[in-house]
Amino acid sequence: MWLAIAVVAVGLIYTGFWYYGASMLMDRVNTSLARLNADGRRANCEEPDIHGYPFRLGVRCRSVFYEDVKEGLSFRAEQTETAANIYDPRHVVMKVGSPATVHLPFLPPATVHWDGLGASTELAQPFPTRVSIAGSNIELAPEGSEDDARPVARISAGELHARQVEQDVEIATSFQELKLSEDVVANVPPLEGRAMVVVNDGLTMMMDRNIALRGQKGVIEEFVVGVVGQKAGISVSGPIEFDNEGLMTAQLRIKVDDPVGTAKILAEIFPKVADPIRSATGMLTALGNAAVEIRVVRGDAFLGFVPLGKIPPV
């Protein structure tokens, strides 16, 4: 009898603490939304609800919305759920419902559909120490297009990871079976790739809410794009920076796998420069697996002392 009474008492006390934590979490959600709704920004969680009893604690929104007028950003998505285990409240996982409407300053408005999209983060001040996003069967279409309209881009799976490394931010991403619509670029076969980039002083960029490349620098640790099921591919690595005028300065190592196959694919994608691409095939074949050193000085690209052309400012 006393054991049963003790179990019931512990359960009641735990339940009371859980609902107390739920009340505190709701207050924090409301406070955070109020803080976000200022200085040209708007944020909303429609019909917020606390869930996860007994071992988790999280927030469920019927829909979410965020807009930053100054940066030209906006995001709207269907039902979104966040949750954290009671014993590790700083590790938060999120599941986002499809579809979402996205506005970015450098792209036309788009609608994104997916089969599954999840994220996790390790909370800290002033920014999370780590963020990971993974999705499957992601399709990108112009905003306002019909549901059966052909997407402009589709990937079967993709991931994005970011973490703090002292004051820098390290970003890694990968994608599989990227397919682009013929309306965007013709004759592009399915692609796959991965990249890892270090953004120097990235924390300052986030604190200043500055996503522009001008005045920034970093290191491309790895950038690889290849054709699915083939050896053809290109890899790039090296330090890179942009001055306040948007001109690039970099020291890049470029390696081409299967030069003949890669040149054939590039010539089909860019028919106007097919002849120069074919002309470079012999040199690349002679290099074998060796990388080519490309030097860029304020937008002027050189292969050794041979000028290659001008790269426009970003």
UniProtKB/TrEMBL annotation:
This is DUF2125 domain-containing protein. Keywords: Membrane, Transmembrane, Transmembrane helix. The chain crosses the membrane at residues 6-26. It comes from the Bacteria.
